[in-house]
What we know:
- The structure is a single chain.
- By secondary structure, this protein is mainly α.
- It has one domain (3-120).
- The protein has helices at 3-30, 37-55, 60-74, 77-89, 93-120.
- Helix 1 runs parallel beside helix 3 and helix 2 packs parallel to helix 5.
- The relative contact order is 0.18.
- The mean pLDDT is 96.
Amino acid sequence: MSPLVALAVGAVGGAGAVARFLLDGAVSARVRGKFPYGTFVVNISGALVLGVLVGAAVGQGAYRIAGTGFIGAFTTFSTWVFESHRLGEDGELALGFANLTGSVVAGILAAWAGQELGIWL
């Protein structure tokens, strides 16, 4: 990997983190409840975009910058797991389980749909 690609991954990663913060906040402000809808929307939309990149067969440099940099910083495994755990601690076991399993199923479907869309593009 070239130093330029590494710098681009870092710069674009910063943009991905800001995008996650803004989208999570926008969704959470509009949808109330105990379920972490903001994180769910962020992670599923990230899986869709990553699928598009794979399906479109973008070059390795572009994939590293967009996929690893932006989408890697945009999506958040740790927050997803923490929020699921927190729901369980709060006695919301069904919501915690729904968040864990729903995110996996929806993420796989979104990645598949994105890949199909990317191939079509």
